[in-house]
Design brief:
Blueprint (H helix, E strand, L loop, with lengths): L10 H18 L5 H14 L3 H13 L4 H6 L11 H14 L10 H10 L2 H24 L13
Helix pairs in contact: 1-7, 2-3, 2-5, 2-7, 5-6, 5-7
Length: 157
Amino acid sequence: MDARLNYFGNALGAKVLKHINSANKVVADSALPHATQELVKIRASQINGCGFCTDMHTKDATHAGETAQRLNLVAAWREATVFTDAERAALELAEQGSRIADAAGGVTDEAWANAAKHFDEEQLAALVGLIAVINAYNRINVIIQQPAGNYQPGQFG
């Protein structure tokens, strides 16, 4: 299976990705816990049906020491007891922020207030940026049908 477009090798696509990657670096270097970042990226990628990003972020999380149990339960986080309250708040925000069209009014005040109980303003800004960035990556990969399964941890730097 090949992607519809070599977005990574396309001059314009490469420019777009350069800016998205810069935004991602800002979030990655923030005070938002790395484990939370990976969980959010995985959940948004699952919701959006992005195999490439789901493959990448589960492998990166595993490489960083995340357990198979937690990774296997990300899609069912509401019923799982293996996530902290802060991680659960971030996963809820990620779900609502990824499913904007599914909910009239977007992210609920309750989801926002719950996230604000667990994260300071810098971390909230990072979380919002992360949700936006992973959704952008997901959309690019889904539109071009970027194949999944061959990612190696650290492949992009």
